[in-house]
């Protein structure tokens, strides 16, 4: 009897099957169940891999934000805070010193250890993977005057609720570009009455940027709040007022 055949691919043709089997109703149902099982298995595998990679990423961030207690106990809070930020890829500035960034030789050096008694007055952690746990390494810096947390992806409202511990010294703070900060977190900054400059521009989680900026300015009256682009359209200048008046119809 005549039967049609077609190749079956598995990294090349490994054999042939009769097409007459494929057109058999029972064989078709069996083939459909096999295909469904195949798709189910592969979909499960994709989800499992995705969850695994997500857990791995979370654990990696947590590992980076471990408390450097052993360094703090041996060298003090200034060295511990500097070590933590430099390890994340940021930069630090000790009083009366130049900005310091981690180099290829690592973080340990004789000059670094000589700074145990020199206050750490500025930290630039822009783009670093700092989170709620990692802030433990900075809250002991009671002489810290400037803190930049620009574009930190893991910084959220809960983190801002901890910054009150730096209220006595902190004068400059940048939160620009942090995707997880909203109005709730910004409300926690009312403790920082010594702030003189605050950058809250480009916060996508803030639903009403212009109104939020006004409220923050009222909350911190002695602080320059950056984010003026948000307020465009809220304040009308003299030229716009005159144009509106000229273009408006005269009531009868």
Explain what the structure shows.
This protein has 252 residues and is α/β, with parallel strands linked by helices. It has a domain of 164 residues: Ribonuclease Inhibitor (Leucine-rich repeat, LRR (right-handed beta-alpha superhelix)), CATH 3.80.10.10. The chain is built from 9 helices and 9 strands. The strands form 2 sheets. The protein has a 7-stranded mixed β-sheet with strand order 4-3-5-6-7-8-9, covered by helices on one side. α3 packs across α4. The radius of gyration is 30 Å and the shape is flat. 24% of the residues are buried. The N terminus and C terminus are likely disordered. InterPro entries: LRR_dom_sf (IPR032675). Required for the assembly of the mitochondrial NADH:ubiquinone oxidoreductase complex (complex I). Involved in the assembly of the distal region of complex I. Belongs to the ATP synthase subunit s family.
Kindly report the name of the CATH homologous superfamily of the domain at 65-228.
Ribonuclease Inhibitor
**Shape field:** flat
Structural class: alpha/beta
CATH architectural group of the domain at 65-228: Alpha-Beta Horseshoe
Q: Radius of gyration from the CA trace?
A: 30 Å
Distance between the termini: 99 Å
Identify the strand order in the major beta sheet.
Answer: 4-3-5-6-7-8-9
Helix and strand sequence: EEHHHHEEHEEHEHEHEH
Kindly report the CATH topology of the domain at 65-228.
Leucine-rich repeat, LRR (right-handed beta-alpha superhelix)
Mean pLDDT: 79
Q: Helical content, roughly? A: 25-40%
CATH class of the domain at 65-228: Alpha Beta
Largest sheet: 7 strands, mixed
Count every helix, treating DSSP H or I runs of 4 or more residues as helices: 9
The total of beta strands comes to 9
Proportion of residues in extended strands = 5-15%
- Ranges where pLDDT stays below 50 over 5 or more residues in a row are 1-23, 230-252
Function: Required for the assembly of the mitochondrial NADH:ubiquinone oxidoreductase complex (complex I). Involved in the assembly of the distal region of complex I.
Family: Belongs to the ATP synthase subunit s family.
Protein name: Distal membrane-arm assembly complex protein 2
Subunit structure: Interacts with incompletely assembled mitochondrial NADH:ubiquinone oxidoreductase complex (complex I).
């Amino acid at each position: 009897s005549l039967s049609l055949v077609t190749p079956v691919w598995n990294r090349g043709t490994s054999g042939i099957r009769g097409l007459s089997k494929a057109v058999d109703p029972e064989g078709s149902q069996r083939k459909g169940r096999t295909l469904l099982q195949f798709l189910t298995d592969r979909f499960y595998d994709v989800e499992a891999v995705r969850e695994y990679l997500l857990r791995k990423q979370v654990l990696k961030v947590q590992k980076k934000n471990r408390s450097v207690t052993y360094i703090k106990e041996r060298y003090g809070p200034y060295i511990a805070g500097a070590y933590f930020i430099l390890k994340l890829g940021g930069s630090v500035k000790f009083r009366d010193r130049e900005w310091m960034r981690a180099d290829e030789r690592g973080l340990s050096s004789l000059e670094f250890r000589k700074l145990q008694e020199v206050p750490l007055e500025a930290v630039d952690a822009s783009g670093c993977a700092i989170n709620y746990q990692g802030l433990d390494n900075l809250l002991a810096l009671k002489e810290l005057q400037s803190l930049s947390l620009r574009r930190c992806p893991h910084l959220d409202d809960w983190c801002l609720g901890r910054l009150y511990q730096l209220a006595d010294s902190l004068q400059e703070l940048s939160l620009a570009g942090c995707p997880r900060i909203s109005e709730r977190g910004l409300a926690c900054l009312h403790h920082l009455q010594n702030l003189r400059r605050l950058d809250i521009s480009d916060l996508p989680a803030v639903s009403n940027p212009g109104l939020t900026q006004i409220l923050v300015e009222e909350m911190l009256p002695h602080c320059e709040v950056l984010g003026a682009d948000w307020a465009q359209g809220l304040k009308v200048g003299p030229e716009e007022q005159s144009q509106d008046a000229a273009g408006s119809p005269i009531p009868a």
